[in-house]
Queue: 4 jobs
Job 1
Amino acid sequence: MSTPRTTIRITVAITSVVYAVILYIAGVRLDNNVKHLLSYLPSVAGLALIVFDRWLWKLPPINRLHSRPRIGGLWQVELQPDAASHIPEGGNRGPIAAYMLIEQSFWSVCVTQFTAESTSQSRAVAYIRRPDSSRQMLSFTYDNQPRREHLPRSPRHTGACELSLSTGSPTVLPGLYFTDRFTAGEMKLILIDRTTNYADFAAAAAHDRATQSVGP
């Protein structure tokens, strides 16, 4: 299933290319070269928008011209449930090891979190700026799907998370979470690297171990 982000990119790209092709086939002739170049400006602008959204916004010195922090990548996560959380008998009372994949462009964010028992996928995601401050929060709701062997004790549920962001390219993110199972707690994220191509907890953990064995 395509996302709105993908649909917008494809629409802009197709529109830009079709517009340029129509001008060329129609044999549009303007008074001078400058006007001729200007006729292609909508096509160039559309493609430039896609390039900016995917890649350009991350690069210096462009990243100094906006306030969007770069948080895309693989993060090691430690979850610490509150003591008052309603955790079923036999459940993990923490700290809980997890990994979070953040897939990010300038205008969109998708979050996936793996634990040994379940996978969570973000639904609605939003940046929230604090008044009179450069600091932001990344707030998102998510849907959690436990592995089948854990369903009798840990049913599917929804929740929300809020991460505290700093400007630039932070490597540590504190956060909070709560769920509709009456559990809540704190979380701490530590950046591993900018990769995101992992299907489950085991794959992310294997990459984490390999990264640590290589060292700086």
Job 2
Amino acid sequence: MLITRRSPLTGKLNEMDLPITDAQIEVYTRGGVLIQDAFPNLTPDQREFFKTGYTPEDWARLFPEGDE
């Protein structure tokens, strides 16, 4: 399913094709379930994108490697 989210960092609209169903989205949006339980088949990066709109590239910009 093609999911579109706006990056909180860049303001850019991004799309990600996620292997999820309408039923999974409904379970998650009703509340009371953790995102990893609603979408166990997604990677952490995919779940982050679905929930917040942050892309892996956004995270790399926010937290560069070697930054301590």
Job 3
Amino acid sequence: MSRSDARAAAAALVPAPPIPRTAEAGSEPVFAEPWQAQAFALVLELQASGAFTWREWTEALAAEIAAAARAGEPDDGARYYEHWLAALERLAVRRGLADPEALAERRAAWADAYARTPHGQPVELERRP
């Protein structure tokens, strides 16, 4: 086994990150919005199923955060899961797991649903035939 193959194999064995939790012992996972928990869980599931390695994931997420920093975004963590989602979308497209046009259509559908939903009501997509 070559040294680069050994490094790749070791990177693939890195354990999953811990689920974020509040400071209290035994507390529930912490996410500001339900979609953040869903995006987090999707990354864990895709990695566990072999869709990509942790190294690929961390590189994709780091690239999103670095791009935001270059664009002048403050590094205060407020948009962390937006970067997480963007990294997930880019990696899914790169690995052939998602179609970029389908993602764009879904994003537009959510934006439209959000715009027509009264404040305080759950946002729901219209069902397609």
Job 4
Amino acid sequence: MTLGQLELHGERVLLRRAEVADLPAIVALLAADQLGASRDGADGTHGIAPYERAFAAIDADPAHLLVVGTRGQDTVATLQLSVLPGLARRGASRMQIEAVRVRSDLRGLGLGEALLRWSVERARVQGCALVQLTSDKARTEAHRFYGRLGFVASHEGFKLSL
């Protein structure tokens, strides 16, 4: 099922809910980046199984949506959207955007911007009061990108690896 479509220099990129068959392409997008290269990828030790387990959990929960962008038969982008209900802000829901990736040869052409704008509009339609995302401190180019789209670095985030 098509969720939307984006134009990229006269070519159409279709957005749809990811399917388990998309996992190899999604994992390749995750691994093809400065941080993902060391923490993602289907190697000989773990293979694709950890991603299949995560996919099953995401796909089973209606609060989460794993999206792929395709151009023809090629997967060229991905992201995950999660609607988080909360008590803060008078019970407002927020949209969390995670794992935004665009294929390296298509970066800088406007696909990432169109994908984020589509996500923000989806959050509005779903009644979210806020859209949030996190970005590793090492991703300085991504920070400039998000800032250009109106995102503000308003909080300091903390993580604890387990």
